[in-house]
Amino acid sequence: MVTMNSNGFGFSFPNNDDDDNDRNRNNNDPFGFFGGAGGFGGGGLGDLLNQFGQMLSGMGDSMNSPEAGGPVNYDLATRIARQQIGRVAPTKQSDKDAVTESIRLAELWLDDATELPTSGHRAEAWNAEEWLEHTLPMWKRLVSPVAEHMNQAQMDNLPEEAKEMMGPMSAMMNQMSSMNFGMQLGNALGDLAKQTLSGSDFGLPVAPAGVAAVLPVNLAEASKGLNVPAQEMLVYICAREAARQRLFKHVPWLLERLVSSVEEYATGLEIDTSHIQDALGQFQMDTPDPQRLQEMMSELQGMDLSPRIGSRNAAAVSRLETLLALIEGWVDLVVTQAMSERIPSTAAINEAWRRRRATGGSAEQAFAKVVGIEFNAPKVAEATELWRRVEVAVGIQRRDAVWDHPDFLPVAEDLDNPAQFIDGLLDEGGSDDFDPIAEISKLEKFLAEEADKKDGSAEAGDDTDSEKSDGDTTDESGDDTTK
């Protein structure tokens, strides 16, 4: 029987005691300082300036860094993350060798479970500080558009009078916002660095291209309480990382699809305060009755008056959620198939992994904490079952060919009801000569030609109208001459 610690495979965000919950409403929320998802708070200008003074304390050169004027002060984020991580020992050569050999072994086994070839990426063993250094560039790509558009959404939400009053202070407010985002990001990344297990943990490709990385020290800590040999745990994690890298290497559109979903969501960010106005409209704050006034204040304290952050492009989050589910579901399937007959503890580790995913070690938790985007837990179990049924219906080669083009992928509805998706694959399989990529190319070419024809017809129509207009002018001129 597998025993587990309370954190679920060793992954957790901060404790859930009442003090931490109160503190983390703003600290875990990149938008908390300006009254975003973390709540308005009750302070006035004095409290705001006091908070600003606390932020400035100990910041040093971070305020004057080139990134201080951007949407996120990444210099400050890096400093805070390193403080969170603390002193870490260099990665042992024995750990590096173990990771290299485990990935090599996992790659051999994965060849039996997927048509996608090995990525050929360099195997590396990282400590927490190296994870931070190597993954920060990709986190920047994910965080920057959200922070930038959140700042704009906050400004758009202000009354015109407030915008005019803030005019002279806009530079300072932008710097405060940049520092606040940097502080939140630094705390989040520092926490994540001590608990993540590989370069693309959770299905997020944040590691540099060409690298398959595992964090042996974090893995050893996460494995405490599991009745599983350390070597088997290492091979399992290496197999998951190697499988993901095969996807990201041989499905070239996959990474940009993830990033573009985040960017699309960010461009539609908006802050809704209508529920606050509705709540306040129910009270007559000018009542002369002190007891009634006290009752109203008590009622207000019990209400959720924090602004609601949403996006006009909410469909982008659904696509992101589905894509992450498909990635991790595919990885679950091929790793289990590759290892189940070779590693006796595969079933126990799979169960531990599901527990980890359910208790905080998941993509939606990482996104909410680091990037500031909240979405439902990806339906990984449903995606795993979909991929399994696809393989039974059409085989491994056709299953993996679904990744050839984004239009071939299942959509959110297919995860709950895969029968129609599988029927579509079976219908396509009626002809051995059917090439879906070629068909899409032909369709795109046809549509482009049709568009060109329409443009040409429109231009010809314009020329005809012009000639007719010239003829009418000549006739009118002739008539005038006759007269």
UniProtKB/TrEMBL annotation:
<feature type="compositionally biased region" description="Acidic residues">
    <location>
        <begin position="472"/>
        <end position="483"/>
    </location>
</feature>
<dbReference type="InterPro" id="IPR042271">
    <property type="entry name" value="Zinicin_2_N"/>
</dbReference>
<dbReference type="InterPro" id="IPR018766">
    <property type="entry name" value="Zinicin_2"/>
</dbReference>
<feature type="compositionally biased region" description="Low complexity">
    <location>
        <begin position="1"/>
        <end position="15"/>
    </location>
</feature>
<dbReference type="Pfam" id="PF10103">
    <property type="entry name" value="Zincin_2"/>
</dbReference>
<feature type="region of interest" description="Disordered">
    <location>
        <begin position="449"/>
        <end position="483"/>
    </location>
</feature>
<feature type="region of interest" description="Disordered">
    <location>
        <begin position="1"/>
        <end position="30"/>
    </location>
</feature>
<protein>
    <recommendedName>
        <fullName>Hydrolase</fullName>
    </recommendedName>
</protein>
